[in-house]
Design goal:
Layout (H helix, E strand, L loop, with lengths): L17 H4 L2 E5 L3 H17 L2 E2 L8 E5 L7 E6 L2 E6 L2 H14 L11 E3 L5 E5 L2 E6 L3 E3 L10 E2 L2 E2 L4 H13 L3 E3 L7 H4 L6 H12 L4 E5 L4 H4 L11 H17 L5 E4 L16 H12 L5 E5 L19 H6 L10 E6 L14 H4 L4 E7 L15 H4 L9 E5 L15 H12 L5 H12 L4 H8 L2 H8 L37 E2 L19 H6 L9 H4 L2 E2 L10 H24 L7 H33 L11
Parallel strand pairs: 1-2, 1-3, 3-5, 7-12, 7-18, 12-13, 13-14, 14-15, 15-16, 16-17, 17-18
Antiparallel strand pairs: 4-5, 4-6, 8-9, 10-11, 19-20
Helix pairs in contact: 2-3, 4-13, 8-9, 13-14, 14-15, 16-19, 19-20
InterPro entries: A-glucoronidase_C_sf, GH, Glyco_hydro_67_C, Glyco_hydro_67_cat
Protein name: Alpha-glucuronidase
GO molecular function: alpha-glucuronidase activity; xylan alpha-1,2-glucuronosidase activity
């Protein structure tokens, strides 16, 4: 097998800068980010024969930055030149990468003037990385791309070359913030606020050169864990003063620090409930400490009872975020952002949009996505996720956050094709209106330009393919507990985690209606509440999320639930077999290391898809007693 490259160049190979390097380029403006632009251009010119012009000299490309902090820019033609006129240095950097994306088309004399600015002010990747190797979760929780690019052997890595390369990749997509440690903040990570702060400052210096602010996940009980106080009560003045002093020291070390990320009172993490306080009390305490510095606290809404009784059908994990947070609307300070998972459960392959995103008009909300594929194939399966994300109300959000998929794997994301999800989350944070398939085409053009046809064949509908051979009709989970890879239909069915499908001999699905179930459907505004309440109008792909139905229930598609399960699971596995053959036929124009890695992952995807097919179909055949109408083998 061919050895992978030391570090894959992803969507910024030297060839992506070819159109830049062959031209005369004038750069106007001052500041660190302008220096970064100048360095990027100089490298391109050195490779492809262009040159940087002196002030006032005629140029093919003019990159001009004003002095504001805005990230916006204009691009268009002026006489014989293409001009990027940026609001400020950050806008100039984004403008440069817009020229790189366009290549020769950026110099078309017919190029129309366009204004570009981000739709969302905060576009952040959250790394669930542990400084120490955690005994249960390893170094990167839910990471499928190797170890952390930041931390090794309990401290910051000595060689941070890859961090700089990562900053370049993120800036080229439009990301402007990164959280460098796990939301589950263990003891070592808690010290990053204090005696480990110098290591965070080193990372911040690298990211700063690409317009990216560093954030930290913090432990709500830090004053107690660090031994300074015997309480973390958010209304205790000594606690508030502790956070004020600690935050002052953070900004002395990192003047452009972005803020805190908090997971509190969820899955065992400490929080304000210990002291009889609520989430607004906890978040506002941290917000007060951050307010003087133009920084934010992001408070995760992923809060639920993970010790519930599976026998009690009135308890519904899907309701938890709404029940905890909707009553607090209007109580959060202006620099608090409540960070809401895009669906009400936990990054499943198919979920309705979280009702929290419609229920808090007086609170700043960020939508949280999971780029690392915990429940969507763990970067062993091809699963291009932006078609799922395109249905989300992103334009109305205060920010877009995503759990990063990156590790120290040579290809960054383990599966080379999983890079597309990382690229796309930045582009959609900048402009949620972009067509997901157009974004995919951008990534292919930059990363694997000779493979456009084959990669579109593999990736365009890969999310729907993954859905076909895994959990049906929106019911979710059905994965092996713990590591969450591979089928286990009843794996979470009788656990305290609250992820149930209630399959019995008569039917399957969760009754979340107002009339007879948990009432979750009624948490949506009209017309969505009415749409989901009725079996007749509930979309097929979400039917089992909202309703418990008989196996012979006829879907809107005209087929029965049980036949749909059989058909889709056979079709999904067949589709993966075709994807594998398609890739193997593309061996010629592909780098051997890339081809070998993708082929290896497709082999595993096919094995897994067939395992899903056989286990799901057999389970429901034995539950229902209804045979496949097409007579295919079900064990």
């Amino acid at each position: 097998m061919s050895q992978p490259p030391e570090v894959h160049s992803a969507w910024l190979p030297p060839s992506a800068f070819r159109a830049l390097g062959s031209r005369r380029i004038r750069i106007e403006g001052r500041g660190l980010l302008v220096d970064t632009v100048r360095s990027e251009v100089a490298q391109a010119c050195a490779s492809f024969g262009g040159r940087i012009c002196e002030p006032g000299e005629p140029a093919d490309l003019v990159l001009d930055a004003s002095v504001t902090s805005s990230e916006g820019f204009r691009i268009g033609r002026l006489g014989e030149s293409t001009v990027v006129a940026a609001d400020g240095p950050a806008g100039l950097l984004h403008g440069l990468f817009e020229v790189v994306r366009r290549g020769e088309a950026a110099f078309d004399p017919a190029l129309a003037e366009e204004r570009h600015e981000p739709a969302l002010p905060l576009r952040v990747l959250d790394h669930w990385d542990n400084v120490d190797v955690h005994p249960v979760m390893g170094q990167v929780e839910r990471g499928y791309s190797g170890g952390s690019i930041f931390w090794r052997n309990g401290r910051l890595r000595e060689d941070l070359t890859r961090v700089r390369g990562y900053a370049r990749l993120l800036a080229a997509t439009g990301i402007n913030a990164v959280t460098v440690n796990n939301v589950n903040v263990h003891t070592t990570e808690t010290h990053l606020l204090t005696d480990g702060l110098g290591q965070v400052a080193t990372l911040a210096g690298i990211f700063r050169a690409y317009g990216i602010r560093v954030h930290l996940s913090v432990n709500f009980a830090a004053p107690v864990i660090l031994g300074d106080l015997d309480t973390a009560d958010p209304l205790d003045d000594a606690v508030r003063q502790w956070w004020k002093r600690t935050t002052e020291r953070v900004f002395e070390a990192i003047p452009d620090f972005g803020g805190y990320l908090v997971k509190a009172d969820s899955e065992g993490q400490p929080g304000p409930f210990t002291y009889g306080r609520d989430h607004a009390d906890g978040a506002n305490m941290l917000a007060a400490a951050l307010a003087p510095y133009d920084a934010v606290v992001r408070w995760r809404a992923f809060v639920y009872n993970h010790r519930q009784d599976w026998r009690d059908r009135t308890t519904d994990r899907a309701r938890a975020a709404f029940d905890h947070f909707a009553p607090l609307d209007g109580r959060f300070d202006d620099n608090v952002i409540v960070q809401v998972k895009h669906g009400p459960m936990d990054f499943q392959t198919r979920e309705p949009v979280s009702p929290v995103l419609f229920a808090m008009p007086y609170t700043r909300l960020a939508v949280e996505l999971q780029v690392t594929q915990e429940y969507t194939g763990q970067q062993k399966h091809v699963c291009y996720l932006p078609p799922m994300w395109s249905s989300l109300p992103l334009r109305s959000a205060a920010g877009l956050t995503a759990v990063s998929s990156v590790g120290d794997d040579p290809f960054w994301t383990g599966h080379p094709l999983a890079q597309a999800n990382l690229y796309a989350v930045g582009r959609l944070g900048w402009n949620p209106g972009l067509d997901p398939l157009a974004v995919l085409d951008e990534w292919i053009s930059l990363t694997f330009p000779g493979l456009r046809e084959v990669l579109h064949d593999l990736m365009d509908d890969s999310w729907q393919t993954y859905e076909q051979y895994t959990a049906p009709l929106g019911v979710g989970f059905m994965v092996r507990p713990g590591h969450h890879y591979g089928p286990d239909v009843d794996g979470y069915e009788y656990t305290p985690w609250g992820t149930y499908h209630f399959a019995d001999r008569d039917g399957v699905g969760v009754d979340r209606t107002v009339a007879t179930g948990t009432g979750f459907a009624g948490l949506y505004p009209k017309p969505f509440s009415q749409l989901y309440e009725s079996r007749a109008t509930c979309p097929d792909e979400l039917l089992l999320f909202f309703h418990h139905v008989p196996y012979d229930h006829v879907l809107q598609s005209g087929t029965t639930v049980i036949q749909h399960i059989y058909d889709t699971h056979f079709a999904g596995a067949e589709r993966v077999a075709g994807m594998r053959e398609r890739w193997l036929s593309a061996a010629g124009p592909v780098d051997p290391a890339v081809h070998a890695r993708v082929a290896e992952r497709l082999d595993e995807q096919l094995r897994s898809a067939e395992e899903w097919r056989d286990q799901i179909n057999t389970y429901f055949y034995r539950k229902s007693g209804i045979p496949d109408a097409k007579g295919r083998t079900i064990h």
